[in-house]
Amino acid sequence: MNIIGFFQYPIFLRALIACLLAGGILSLVGIVIVVLNLTTIRFALMHTALFGAAVALLLAFPPIWGALVAIAATAWFLGPLSDKLSMDTGLAGALFMTGSLALAFFLFYQAGVPAMEAFDVFAGNILALTREDIYSLTIIAFIIALSFGVYYREIQLVLYNSELAETLGIRSKRSRNIMLLVAGLSLGVAMRIVGALLVDAIVLLPALGGLMLGSSLLAVAAYTSLLGLITTVCGLLLALGFNWPLGVTITLTGVGVLFITTLINKFLKTYAK
Question: Which one of 33, 61, 201, 210 has the minimum C-beta count within 10 Å?
Answer without folding.
Answer: 61
